[in-house]
Write a structure and sequence with these properties.
Blueprint (H helix, E strand, L loop, with lengths): L9 E2 L5 E2 L6 E4 L4 E8 L5 E2 L10 E5 L4 E5 L2 E2 L6 E6 L5 E7 L8 E7 L5 E10 L32 E6 L5 H13 L9 E6 L4 E5 L10 E5 L8 E4 L4 E4 L2 E4 L3 E6 L5 E4 L2 E3 L2 E2 L2 E4 L8 E8 L6 E16 L18 E5 L22
Parallel strand pairs: 3-12, 17-26
Antiparallel strand pairs: 1-5, 2-4, 4-10, 6-7, 6-11, 7-8, 9-10, 11-12, 13-14, 14-15, 16-19, 18-24, 20-23, 20-25, 21-22, 25-26, 26-27
Length: 366
């Protein structure tokens, strides 16, 4: 039987699938990195006569940024640091995602996807650590790391940065690692140095012997930051007052407080001091006797010291007392009546007679 319709023969093979997981990678910023995605049975859905029913394609994506980076051999992203290659001669085709000059923004999960009928995906994580300064140190306590931390309680295998440390004598790689690991776990610092090694904690291998001087931070005189320090305050009698004084400098300055008139500072009724140390001064239940100027003085051993004057005003109602409540005087003589008044702010004072009539200045009254 002859047919006018073309005959197609469908060759159905196994579904594509991943052969290896994508390795999680930790890399310092500025380095180049390569992520690998291996696939077998890729492009298994085809028909004869070169008519493709479904050709499987491998794509790379940055999952956190929801960004498609590459599709098959093509780079989709506009990031010039991204490229893609693949080994077509390998039995299991491997697609490599290349990232040059890795930056902090590149960290996160990277997804490799095969566009089968039901898409297949797998993830690898790129962890980017900051560029680490090289320091030589005398003990564990002196280890300095940028963009990270290191303490005696941290196990060596958990540190993914680069540090510098001193050793007593030139040691082999294995003994150096063992000694440093034991020193951290036992909280015992290594002895003073004659050699300095660059240790990669992520891979536990000494990569470069080098003598590097430890930098000495510059010394800077103290400077009081007015933007985060207190200014003059006015409070009601009986309230609490908190004064703050923040200062910068190298080494970090210390702060002490004293009153401008050298009288004592009443922190509480039972705690009265001549000076107070700390960047915060709190006065509890202030009274009129706490009113005055307070000096915040910052020192760090680098001259000159600096100070800030903060005035505390305490408002309270008028209080009066009369020294002589009964005065006798013959008719026709002059007499002076006294009335002492204490108030803040200054009160408005006047005299009245028994009929509440206000007395004004005249020839009789002054």
């Amino acid at each position: 039987i002859n047919s006018v319709f073309p005959v197609f023969f469908l060759a159905v093979l196994e579904d594509p699938e991943f052969t290896d997981v994508i390795e999680n990678i930790t890399v310092p910023a500025g380095r180049n990195v390569k992520l690998a995605c291996s696939v077998k049975n890729l492009g298994s859905y085809k028909v004869r006569n070169s008519f493709a029913v479904n050709v499987d394609i491998v794509a790379w994506m940055h999952f956190e940024q929801s960004a498609i980076l590459t599709v098959h051999n093509h780079v989709i992203t506009r990031n010039p640091r991204i490229s893609v290659t693949h080994d077509k001669h390998d039995k299991h085709k491997t697609w490599f995602l290349h990232i040059t000059n890795v930056q902090e923004e590149d960290k996160g999960r990277y997804m490799c996807q095969i566009n089968t009928v039901t898409a297949k995906t797998q993830f690898g994580y790129l962890h980017v650590v900051g560029k680490v300064s090289i320091f030589c140190v005398n003990s564990i306590n002196d280890i300095l790391i940028e963009n990270g931390f290191f303490s005696q309680t941290v196990v060596l295998y958990d540190v993914h940065l680069v540090v510098i440390i001193f050793f007593q004598h030139p040691l082999s790689i294995n003994s150096s690692i063992s000694r440093l690991t034991d020193g951290i776990k036992k909280n015992t610092p290594p002895r003073p140095n004659t050699a300095c090694f660059l240790l990669s904690c992520a891979k536990l291998s000494i990569s470069l012997p080098e003598i590097v001087p430890r930098p000495i931070p510059p010394k800077l005189p103290p400077n009081i930051d007015d933007s985060v320090s207190s200014s003059d305050v006015i409070v009601r009698e009986g309230a609490n007052v908190t004064l703050r004084c923040k200062a910068t400098g190298s080494p970090p300055p210390s702060i002490k407080w004293k009153r401008d008139d050298n009288t004592k500072i009443a922190i509480t009724r039972n705690n009265i001091v001549l000076e107070w140390e700390g960047d915060v001064l709190t006065l509890s239940r202030v009274s009129r006797y706490d009113m005055g100027a307070y000096l915040c003085i910052a020192t760090n051993g680098v001259p000159p010291s600096v100070s800030k004057r903060i005035k505390v005003s305490v408002d309270f109602p008028p209080m009066l007392w009369i020294p002589h409540q009964l005065v006798g005087i013959p008719v026709g003589y002059n007499v002076t009546l006294e009335c002492n008044i204490e108030a803040h702010p200054t009160s408005l004072n006047y005299w009245t007679r028994e009929n509440d009539q206000m007395i004004h200045d005249s020839q009789k009254y002054k």
